[in-house]
Amino acid sequence: MKPADFATAPQKLVLEEYFAGKTRAWGLFEDRFGTVRRQFTVDITGDWNGERLVLDEAFLYNDGETDRRVWTIRKTADGQYLGEAGDVVGQAAGEAAGNALNWAYTMDLKVGDGTLRVRFNDWMFLQPDNVIINRARVTKWGVEIGQVTLFFRKGD
Question: Which Pfam families does its entry note (predicted)?
Answer without folding.
Answer: DUF3833
